[in-house]
């Protein structure tokens, strides 16, 4: 099976500390370890990247573009609602992409109700906490297996 890239945007390195009532108590390292363990029996190879900097995320997407990825799971954090640059970079990737949000962005402040990525991703998973990453992994696996 192809490589799956898991990208995380700004502030997600603070999971487990930052507003656990909204984002849960799992750290990003815990999520990554659990996701890697779930990917193993599926025969998927995961690669993780997190940055608080929009340009670093775009550079990583450009790098991913050169290796013909099987799929991308992305939690862009607050860049979901603001970054045309991130959207344009992701749009270059022809592989399936799944957008993940720990909280239900549609039950939060009105400015969070708009995703600039929703029309270029295979699907969006929001509101299931850290399990949303697992749902995204299963969705990509199923999509790639069909």
Describe, in plain words, how this protein is organized in 3D:
It contains 5 helices and 5 strands, in the order E-H-H-E-H-E-H-E-E-H. With 146 residues, it is of the alpha/beta class. A 5-stranded parallel beta sheet has the order 2-1-3-4-5, sandwiched between helices. The protein is globular.
Topology:
Layout lengths: L2 E6 L11 H4 L4 H12 L5 E6 L3 H12 L5 E5 L8 H9 L4 E5 L21 E4 L4 H15 L1
Parallel strand pairs: 1-2, 1-3, 3-4, 4-5
Condensed summary:
With about 150 residues, the chain is an alpha/beta fold. Helices cover about 35% and strands about 20% of the residues.
Largest sheet: 5 strands, parallel
Average of per-residue pLDDT values: 95
What overall geometry do the principal axes of the alpha carbons give?
globular
**Helical percent range?**
25-40%
Distance between the termini: 12 Å
Instruction: Give the total of beta strands.
Output: 5
Strand ordering within the main sheet: 2-1-3-4-5
Structural class: alpha/beta
Number of helices: 5
Question: What are the main properties of this structure?
Answer:
single chain; 146 residues; alpha/beta; 5 helices; 5 strands
């Amino acid at each position: 099976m192809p490589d799956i890239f898991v990208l995380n945007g700004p502030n997600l390195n603070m999971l487990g500390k930052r507003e656990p009532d909204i984002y849960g108590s799992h750290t990003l390292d815990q999520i990554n370890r659990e996701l890697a363990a779930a990917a193993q029996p599926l025969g998927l190879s995961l690669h993780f990247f997190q940055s608080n900097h929009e340009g670093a995320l775009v550079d990583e997407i450009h790098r991913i573009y050169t290796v013909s990825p099987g799929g991308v799971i992305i939690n862009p954090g607050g860049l979901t609602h603001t970054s045309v640059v991130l959207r344009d970079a992701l749009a270059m990737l022809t592989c399936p992409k799944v957008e993940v949000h720990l909280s239900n962005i549609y039950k939060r402040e009105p400015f969070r109700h708009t995703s600039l990525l929703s029309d270029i991703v295979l699907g969006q998973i929001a509101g299931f906490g850290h399990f949303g990453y697992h749902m995204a992994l299963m969705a990509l696996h199923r999509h790639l297996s069909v």
